[in-house]
Design brief:
The structure is a single chain. It is built from 2 helices and 8 strands, in the order ααββββββββ. It has a 4-stranded antiparallel β-sheet with strand order 1-8-3-6, with no helix packed on it. A 4-stranded antiparallel β-sheet has the order 2-7-4-5, with no helix packed on it. The protein is about 10% helix and about 45% strand. The termini are far apart. About 10% of the residues have low confidence. It is mainly beta.
Length: about 160
Amino acid sequence: MSSISASCRRALLPIPVLAAMAACGGNSSATTPTTPSVLPTVVSETFTGTLSRNSAYTHPFAVTDAGTVSVFLITSADPVNPDNNAIPLGVSLGTWNGASCAIVIANDNVTPVNADDPLKGKVTGQATAAGNLCVRVYDVGFVPGAAAYELLIDHY
């Protein structure tokens, strides 16, 4: 018979387990998960056209990855009067179902991008996955007869 009490035996029981764990734990270099080796590439697309009074145009495009979608109004000029080169237009961003653009973000007073205010002339949204999107440009009452426009879209 052993003279060690039952409570003492229970207290000593973890010692062999801890010793075995210490013997296995010699590797201190844990593996850290890494980010994907290939990061998504920014895709730039340009759409141009001439907007007449009270009209609108929709330009569908596809994104291949989730991420920021930025639409820049580069130009909006009156072809008859070149000095009128900052016509405010409406620009919206939405999802494309093959027939229509379901607007998600809209700005009804966009003027072309300029160096003094880099946020001017920009509409930004977030694509949550790859899919079909659309940008819509429209007259909000400032197009005199026509407005030649150029949109630049950056996305993934």
